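Practice set, problem 2.
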Amino acid sequence: MPESSAFSLRGKVVVQFGGTGLLGRALVSALGAANATLVVASRNRSSLAALAAAEKKARRKVEVDEVDIGSEASLHALRDRVLARHGRVDGIVFNAVSRPMGKFSDDLAAWRASMETNATGFFATVRAFGDAMAAQGSGSIVNIASMQGMVGMNPWLYEGTAMTAAPDYFFHKGGMINLTRYLASHYGSKGVRVNVVSPGGIFNPEKPQAPAFRERYGKMTMLGRMAEAHEVGGAVVFLLSDASAYITGINLPVDGGYTAK
């Protein structure tokens, strides 16, 4: 298929945070297919090495680099290394997430630990790289939230299964959606766009969700099923590309119609 220049990421330097999980790997593949110059950052060295090997096998090039998003110094060091290698940063994808909290009754220490990555780390990352893009007068930030930042918890989905819905995830993803609007306003005059993508439930072939959950979830959507991880990448590529040059501050649900039903 011929490459459309407006939707292409060729020549754009993109840093993705959180690239070794199910959705992260799918986003890496999507950005690679769109010809981004891609740097995937994580603190897990072995997972990064495996990711780089898999992408090389698929004939897609990806750079990997270590970072601790809980450390502002580590984020600044990563930013400076990317700028030294490439001279600019055209976009970031914030897909990093920590899930220390499993249920409502967990000790508050789990809630506090969740904050470190999902709130403080998120803000520190966007500020470090957003300021760099603002200095050059252009850029695009795409944050990966969840439709669970848009709706309340539905206990019916989980009845009779071992699955639960942790409260911190709803809190962080709802906050991410609204902070994206703030950031879009803050950076807009400097030519930096900030948007958020909110995926719905994604089927995990590596650890399949309970059949009862999948059946009920499908009934809540307009398309009658959970998402596949690769189906989220197009929205992210679009928001990083020049095809969305006049779009900022939006929340784009990729949820099969769940939140519109």
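Problem 2, part (b): a different protein.
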Amino acid sequence: MNWVSKIRQSLEPQAFGVCTMLGEKLRISKNHIRLFFIYAAFVANWSPIIIYLILAFWVNLKNFVNSTKSKVFE
């Protein structure tokens, strides 16, 4: 057995057993917990960009509405 296999056998149950342990404690499928962590990581990484785009759209929409109101009442 090479050194990579030894490290892998000792590390995997400790590092990658989190979803299994949570699933057993909460009586939820470990696959659902893994998917939750994947989706949460995706949302957490992309949320600032999504929030920025929503705010940019909101500001442009507000400016557009204000500019059309002033032209109508002139």
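Answer key, part (b): The helical segments are 3-15, 18-26, 30-72. The two ends are 85 Å apart (CA to CA).
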